[in-house]
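User: I'm new to structure prediction. If I give you an amino acid sequence, what do you actually give back? Let's try with this one:
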Amino acid sequence: MPFVPHTEADVAAMLDVIGVDSIDALFDEIPPHLANGRLDGVPESRSELEVLRALGARAAQDDGYTCFLGGGSYDHHIPAAVWDLTSRGEFMTAYTPYQAEASQGTLQLIYEYQSMMAALTGLDVANASVYDGASGLAEAVLMAARSNKKNKSRQAAMLGAVHPNYVDATRNIVGNQGLEVVTLPCGADGTCSTAELETLASPPCAVVISQPNFLGRLEAVDEITDWAHAHNVLVIALVNPMSLAVLKPPGDWGQAGADIACGDGQPFGVPMASGGPSFGFMCCRDKLVRQMPGRIIGRTEDLEGRVGYALTLQAREQHIRRGKATSNICTNQGLLVTAGTIYMSLLGPQGLRETAIACHRNAMRLKSLLCAIDGVEPLYNGAEFHEFGLRLPRKAAEVSAALQQEKILPGLVLSDFLDVGVADADQVLLIAVTEKRTEDEMQAFAAALGEVL
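Assistant: Good question. You get back a string of structure tokens that encode the predicted 3D arrangement of the chain. For your 453 residues, that looks like this:
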């Protein structure tokens, strides 16, 4: 929407009511050595016409590319109805439901979202979402540390190839609360086993299992979950929600299932949009619900038997004493959750399953086409969902740049991320394939890669 700035008269009137002489006086608590009086990185102002023209030119740069990017954000088909409905004014302009009785439509939508996410993950309860997958993982680690009464360790273990950006974000968030995050190396097949956990001096309070992991591989979730519970370690499942349409849900891992599940909801009706925004989801067992950040919506009836919805749990600092809050960054990414809820409603269980199967089928087809090229090898052999690594005979960044000239976004260069423990990562492309990719597009990718090499 258009931005209408305050006039000088507006500013003067507000300052007069507050009782200060200038805007700078509002920030006098900031020490002078921390204040930055220069904004060298801010460009000169432009008119609305110029800004729209520049943004249009930027958006046009993405036109015509065939996308094989992944690493947490995927190019799925989004039915037109998803954003036609999400863009309606009652959704687009609504904020968080602080006055629950006046927000019945929003509360019902969140209730339906929670119900579907709980069913998809096989767990008892879901919250009303958090910012994104990375912050959701950090919240899950904090939640596990608070909840684990049998194991007071202040250490959480990231098992296998958890997304490096997620690890980094988690460390930044939980480190200030005295929690240490340790990452355990993958084995030669790109997965982990209990052997890596046995190398720790003592069991951590929680172990994070990424399924599929950042390298596209599928972990031995049953074995690891049972080991964790035998050592009083809570299990956090970091999952791609689309994969849950065909893979065992976290609630069924091992004998007792994972304790917490989290991840990024972007595959469900949210465009890649140059990296965001998205929404994170969190689900857990009933016994942990009091430690769940964010909000939980419940369904009830009034005295006349009419269905109504209410905020049944809202353990955040804006609602209770700050010292008792589970989190101070949790929120409901309402607009994105709306899109995700409509997406799941439109596809249903069978539609999600068919989409996931199509993704897997396309990925295996493209992998076979590319590995038929001289010098191209799979990074790993074995089970994968819709993402896989390829080792190239040349630097992956050079190959990627050349393929982009052919209007192909060929995947992520593995060495662009923090250390993932893969030898010669600068020669590895991480490729994702969704249901959108056609046989012609995959053949064109293989032909172009063969030409470049």
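You can read the tokens as a compact description of the fold. Here is one thing that stands out. Residues 334-371 form the longest helix (38 residues).
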